[in-house]
Amino acid sequence: MNWRVIARTDAALASAPRSTRLVLVLPAVTILAAAYLYPVFGSDPITTARFSGFVDGWLATVVPLTGVLLGHDAVVSERESGSLLLSLSLPHGRGDFVLGKVLSRVGLVSGVVLVAMVLGAGLVVYPFGRLEVVQFCGFVVTTVAFGAIWTNLGIAASLSTATKQRAFVVAFGLFFLFVLVWDAIADGLQYGLDRAGLVDGSLPDPVQFVFGLEPGAVFQRVTAGFFDPSTSVDGPWYLGEWVALAVFGLWLFGPLTVTYSRFAGSDLS
């Protein structure tokens, strides 16, 4: 059994429960609702490139939730039940097992995003919008990668814990920190420094860079810098879209690589 078989089997099993299908509906409904509303509430010209700036804030909340819900029990559920040791007794290694799980869970999220984006583009273009293929395709690829980041973070939590409860706490702790309270922490710090007279209305650029390392902020900066002609990324070079793209790549591969290296050498008994 190789990673292809693991991916196909896991995708079939993971997508079977009704709860999983409901989770996967979240990004699809968000994209389609935004595509329906954008021609009504967006400013002219109505284009698929400018649509990216309209929907990216919504996706920065919904996609992380979908990713951690789908990824956090990918490995630990089998470890907790004991079936992981049985799977690894077959002719494949831990690398094949984890790769199959990643491709399965990321593939489910990516497939939903791709289909919703294609349908959403139709809603944006018809009857008076304009299709801008290069920018829109770049935005779609970036959104798929953003979904992979959060699904991988969920899988990383699954790799680094021994029970589903702990994996849930780790995965949703990351979601709670980066998606729900990160901006509030930045706003609170800005308010405190402003009241103390240390800043004038905004955080210093290096502090903005630190707070801008959060995956959703990086996703929105890449979107604004490369695909949305209605916005621009201001500030010093380290707040620009190219640095954001490099950080985006680190989020995509870094956490999963680190947790897998620990998983590969751990005792699973």
Task: Report on the architecture of this protein.
77% of the residues lie in helices and 0% in strands. The chain has 269 residues and is mainly α. α3 runs parallel beside α7 and α3 (48-71) packs antiparallel against α10 (215-226). The longest helix has 32 residues, at 94-125. It starts with a helix and ends in a 5-residue tail after the last helix.
List its salient traits.
single chain, about 270 residues, mainly alpha, 11 helices
Give the % helix: over 70%
Characterize the biggest β-sheet: none
Mean pLDDT: 92
Number of strands: 0
Low-pLDDT stretches: none
Specify the overall morphology.
globular
CA-atom Rg in angstroms: 20 Å
Present the secondary structure layout.
Blueprint: H1 3-15, H2 18-41, H3 48-71, H4 76-81, H5 83-88, H6 94-125, H7 133-160, H8 164-195, H9 205-211, H10 215-226, H11 241-264
Helix pairs in contact: 1-6, 2-3, 2-6, 3-6, 3-7, 3-8, 3-10, 6-7, 7-8, 7-10, 7-11, 10-11
Summary, kept brief:
With 269 residues, the protein is an all-alpha fold. The protein is built from eleven helices and no strands.
